[in-house]
Write a structure and sequence with these properties.
Rossmann fold, 2 domains, 7-stranded parallel beta sheet, glycosyltransferase activity, Glycosyl transferase family 1, transferase
Length: 427
């Protein structure tokens, strides 16, 4: 077996979608004659923890660790709440930001380039150089965000000339929150220079979306492959749907991810249709910004609203499969067209219909359309949203089966890992 060194910040017990991608790749790489070796921080500060993922780490997997200095730990002295929200990517609109949050954003954007994990670069390079000199590896793989990990790959590439794959789970300078970091002109220039250095130096680039691939194609001549996220299993056994007409959103709802016209459509249907009012439930599972909560309540949905804080991955899957309809929501901007939320693939595996709201030319639209898994709407599509919800409600009232039966095997984690393994072998 050929070995690959995978450099990642997120690893169990971290929770959320960031950890799942490489945890699942590692799980299946050996089936394709690739031996993974993991390098992670010894003392990370994860905004979300899910201890259930630890059981999926292969027992004999070799894992290297090196301590990391986390500036967010210092920031918590001044404001734990603001520190946690910024590190989670939840950034309020500027007119709703406190002075402390504005200051933290300025410091984060201009003093920690490319991100607050930059202090792990130098010690990691020194530590990994010895490992790579003394042992044979087919390649190294870095995955970001945090994009500072790509700079570890860049330094190792420069000093050892080893094959290097850079995996971008999200864009870099075009990611949604980048414009909110209050960057100076010189800081923005530095981000662009670092991004270009990574793109031009990596032997192969992986993106999780088609739009990000198109963006990077305009910045580098290096080969780029799209390997989306995926689902792991559809064999969860029989599940009983909940009694109500339940719409569920699983995952964080940031301030910018606030489809007011969706809440308005629900509100109008409640006021117009007595049966709908009695049966409708809106479940929000995960962190939700106060701005989103206020918007939902202002549309008269408070009595139909159920909150759940972060739940384990297994519990999230159960909630998805028991819901009538699943909500997929993305920020309405050009920068987010290339964001394909990881949960979309588990939504597909749940076989429940999906109501999605997002930007024009959103990559997720292509996946939902090809999988015949639901409908995608723009932020101003009130009447079309209402019509779609009513169609689903009539099916619900008449006891009709709304399960999707399309072939989604190409999104299975093992099949996606096979695509990754072929890429590694061809280096």
């Amino acid at each position: 077996m050929e070995k690959v060194l995978i450099i990642t910040y997120y690893w169990p017990p971290a929770g959320g979608p960031g950890v799942q991608r490489w945890l699942k790749f590692v799980k299946y790489l050996r089936d394709f004659d690739i031996e993974p070796v993991i390098y992670i921080p010894e003392n990370p500060s994860y905004p979300i923890v899910d201890k259930t993922f630890a059981s999926e780490v292969p027992e004999d997997l070799k894992i290297f660790k090196k301590p990391i200095f986390e500036p967010y730990a210092i920031a918590e002295i001044f404001s734990k709440k603001d520190s946690e929200t910024i590190s989670s990517g939840i950034i309020n609109r500027e007119d709703n930001q406190s002075f402390i949050q504005k200051l933290m954003l300025y410091i984060r954007g201009n003093f920690f380039i490319p991100d607050a994990r930059k202090f792990w670069i130098k010690p990691s390079v020194k530590y990994l150089q010895e490992e790579l000199k003394n042992n044979t590896y087919k390649a190294i793989i870095t995955t970001g965000p945090p994009h500072s990990l790509h700079l570890i790959g860049l330094k190792l590439k420069e000093t050892l000339n080893i094959k290097w794959i850079a995996d971008f789970r999200d864009p870099w300078t075009n990611i949604g929150y980048h414009s909110k970091l209050k960057l100076s002109e010189s800081s923005q220039k530095k981000h662009i220079e670092l991004e270009r250095s990574v793109l031009d130096s990596a032997d192969h680039i992986i993106t999780t979306s088609f739009t990000t691939k198109d963006e990077f194609t305009g910045k580098t001549s290096k080969p780029i492959t799209v390997i989306t996220n995926g689902f792991e299993s559809e064999n969860y056994g029989k599940v009983q749907l909940n009694n109500g007409f339940q719409f569920s959103h699983v995952g964080s709802l940031l301030s910018g991810r606030n489809p007011e016209n969706l809440w308005k459509a629900f509100g109008e249907l409640i006021s117009e249709n007595k049966n709908f009012k009695e049966k409708f439930e809106l479940n929000l599972v995960g962190k939700v910004s106060q701005e989103v909560v206020n918007s939902i309540k202002s549309n008269g949905l408070e009595s139909n609203l159920n909150f759940k804080s972060y739940v384990s991955h297994n519990e999230a899957i159960k909630i998805q499969r028991q819901s009538t309809v699943l909500l997929l929501i993305e920020i309405n901007s050009v920068e987010t067209r290339g964001i394909i939320p990881g949960k979309i693939f588990e939504y597909l595996a749940s076989r429940r219909p999906v109501l999605a709201v997002g930007p024009k030319k959103w990559d997720a639209s292509q996946i939902l359309k090809e999988s015949d898994a639901g409908e995608v709407f723009l932020y101003d599509d009130v009447e079309r949203i209402k019509s779609y919800i009513l169609d689903l409600f009539h099916l619900f009232e008449n006891g009709k089966n709304m399960e999707n039966t399309a072939d989604i095997s190409r999104f299975h984690r093992k099949n996606l890992t096979g695509k990754l393994a072929n890429l590694i072998k061809e280096l």
